[in-house]
Amino acid sequence: MVLAELGGSISRALKRMSDATVVDDKALADCLNEITRALLQADVRFAAVRDLQNNIRRLVNLEALAAGTNKRKIIQQAVFCELCSMLDPGKPSFVPAKGKPSVVMFVGLQGSGKTTTCTKYAYHHRRKGFNPALVCADTFRAGAFDQLKQNATKARIPFYGSYNESDPVKIAVEGVDRFRKENYDLIIVDTSGRHKQEAALFEEMRQVSEATKPDLVIFVMDGSIGQAAFDQAQAFKQSASVGAVIVTKMDGHAKGGGALSAVAATKSPVIFIGTGEHIDEFEVFDVKPFVNRLLGMGDLSGLVNKIKDVMPADQQPELVQKLTAGTFTLRLLYEMFQNLQNMGPLGQLFSMFPGFGGGLITKGKEKEGQAKIKRYMTIMDSMTDAELDSTNPKLMNESRIIRIARGSGRLVKDVTEMLEEYKRIAKMWSKLKLNNKNVRDHQIIN
Ligand code: GDP
């Protein structure tokens, strides 16, 4: 994801500032210039970048800081806060409630991923205990109803639409009325998209909105459209009362700036991001964990939340408890490897963890990564329970290492390599926990 490049550039700028012998106005200016360049390259609008620069300068008045204050930390916190406030319009969006009927209308240009996202949104909420239904009010695009029907059928979500009726308002009203009567608590209306912003599209949107009185209008935007995002989002905001944004295709070449621009233009929060074509490739968007991840700080609370999403409830407590409370033992690593091996939803999740994503499983080299994991697991199979559960396996002595190598049919070098890898991942893990503590502290300050 190109977004990772933006995060990488900002992190590098912060690190250079941190490593500087003295943190003075020049070091701060260099750091801000680098961050500015990175944001502009990621298609963030100039006005937003200028505001961010000014705010950080205002927040970090180096001369006024008392001697002994940790300037590096203050600058890092200020950058973190400003990136968060760029993405946070300060007012939450409407949140549907279970058992209470809500109508949510989706708007966006053709090809933005609107129809796919409607089903993802319905599916996500059904897993949370809602009773969702879909209405296809897109009578403009040939095949739109078939597409929604196919997606909805696959996800086993009730749908409403028509092959003959050409009036989108009529279909929307009929569908919403019907599902209301049938006590569905989340009625999702997919509307027409057009190739470009045009008066007819906006007029149609306005009419559907007036007739169905949605509790929330969600603007769906393709994350890879770059600088065009601001104008597009603003045009939609002016014609429909957009209350939330979903940015799609964040798995592709999205530079991320589009998401920031859409927030600025609509003054509405991004609530989800689409990360693939599959119904599961849909993530709740939370500003602070996102910025944390962007800056490579990892995000333990996000990881735990996602585990809750993808794992059967009866298996969650044990793993969540181990991840959050326990120390990072070799046994925990073994269990993570098991999940990574079959690359189920949990494995995909772990592969996002910094130690795995950037180290063991690299994109394009998945086969080698998997072979390495298999080798490490064979070695761990020759360890004792005490060694696997030890909080300090570094203390393993040479004779044990030789025995483990012999027992697993591997070389001593393989065993030491595995232990080194474990140390590397355990170190990242402890940092991750530390960062989460910092974020919690930070939230308390705010
Ligand atoms: P609509 O015209 O706005 O309703 O767009 P569609 O829902 O038909 O989506 C257009 C294309 O984008 C389809 O091929 C989708 O599979 C694809 N798509 C939608 N969301 C995502 C996403 O998050 N990531 C990727 N890679 N593709 C997506």
The helix tally amounts to: 20
* Low-confidence region ranges: 435-446
Number of separate strands: 8
Radius of gyration: 25 Å
N-to-C SSE series?
A: HHHHEHEHEHEHEHEHEEHHHHHHHHHH
- Beta-strand fraction estimate: 5-15%
Protein name: Signal recognition particle 54 kDa protein
InterPro entries: AAA+_ATPase, P-loop_NTPase, Signal_recog_part_SRP54_M_sf, Signal_recog_particl_SRP54_hlx, Signal_recog_particle_SRP54_M, SRP/SRP_N, SRP54, SRP54_euk
Domain SRP54-type proteins GTP-binding: 269-282
Subunit structure: Component of a signal recognition particle (SRP) complex that consists of a 7SL RNA molecule of 300 nucleotides and six protein subunits: SRP72, SRP68, SRP54, SRP19, SRP14 and SRP9.
Architecture overview:
This protein is α/β, with parallel strands linked by helices. The chain folds into 3 domains: 2-87, Four Helix Bundle (Hemerythrin (Met), subunit A) (Up-down Bundle); 102-294, P-loop containing nucleotide triphosphate hydrolases (Rossmann fold), CATH 3.40.50.300; 300-445, 434 Repressor (Amino-terminal Domain) (Orthogonal Bundle), CATH 1.10.260.30. 59% of the residues lie in helices and 9% in strands. It has an 8-stranded mixed beta sheet with strand order 3-2-4-1-5-6-7-8, sandwiched between helices. Helix 10 (257-266) links the parallel strand 6 (242-248) and strand 7. The chain is globular. It starts with a helix and ends with a helix. The site of guanosine-5'-diphosphate has 18 residues, from helix 5.
